[in-house]
Amino acid sequence: MYKKGEVTYQALPLPDRVQRDDAGALAEVQAFRDYMKKRHSVRDYSSRTVPESVITACIEAAGSAPSGANHQPWHFAAISDPAMKAKIREAAEEEEREFYSGGAGDEWLAALEPIGTGVSKPHLTDAPWLIVVFAQRYGVTEDGQRYKNYYVPESVGIATGMLITALHMAGLVCLTHTPNPMKFLPELCGRPAHEKAVMILPVGYPADDATVPAVAKRKKPLDQILTVFR
């Protein structure tokens, strides 16, 4: 994390070592891979509550992500307040109406058709929690001076991926919801002007009758996502 005046490098012995032998590494990552294959993006949520402590632990895990120059250019707003969730849903659905009534091209709408999305976003009020992910365009020191952040989209993307993984490890489901341009969110969440909302994650437990799009189970095979040079 950036601190004004801390501009020199100081080496610290590696504080944690988690290495395994080859067999142990393979077994561990295969188990993790198989568990992650059970992660699904869900739109149908149970009314079961989720303790705040679980949500904050997941966000704390996300906050450990690597980032450009270790500036950690992110902020997470966790919302359970029904009135705030209702405002977010109302504003998001207004943007979605513009999107589906001509804002999106035919090709984009055709790509979304197998996913089954539409203007109505009940998950934004049904889910017990919404986590809004903010990206910080630049940082501000304690005395109000700006400093540059680096690789902001990449850094926030990594942290968000770690958050989604942590939520799955907690037995929760979520959905990557990205209304555009989401200009209403910083003000609603009391965030400064230099932070941009990039994603809303509805979070909770799946409803008993939850479904997912069949097409979502189609994943590219390994030979299409991996090239090995020996």
**Helix-residue proportion:** 25-40%
The domain count comes to 1
CATH fold field value = NADH Oxidase
> For this structure, what is the CATH homologous superfamily?
NADH Oxidase
InterPro entries: Nitroreductase, Nitroreductase-like, Nitroreductase/BluB
Domain Nitroreductase: 37-205
GO molecular function, one term: oxidoreductase activity
Protein name: Nitroreductase family protein
Question: Could you name the key traits of this structure?
Answer:
230 residues; Nitroreductase family protein; Nitroreductase-like; 8 helices; two-stranded antiparallel ribbon; four-stranded antiparallel beta sheet; 6 strands; NADH Oxidase; Nitroreductase/BluB; alpha+beta
Give structural notes.
This is Nitroreductase family protein. GO terms for molecular function: oxidoreductase activity. Residues 37-205 form the Nitroreductase domain. Keywords: Flavoprotein, FMN, Oxidoreductase. The protein has 230 residues and is α+β, with helices and mostly antiparallel strands. It has a single domain, classed as 3-Layer(aba) Sandwich (NADH Oxidase). Helices cover 37% and strands 14% of the residues. It has helices at residues 22-36, 52-62, 82-103, 106-112, 123-126, 152-169, 184-188, 222-225, and strands at 74-79, 129-136, 138-140, 146-148, 173-174, 195-204. Strand 3 and strand 4 form a beta hairpin. Helix 2 (52-62) packs across helix 6 (152-169). The chain is globular. The mean pLDDT is 94.
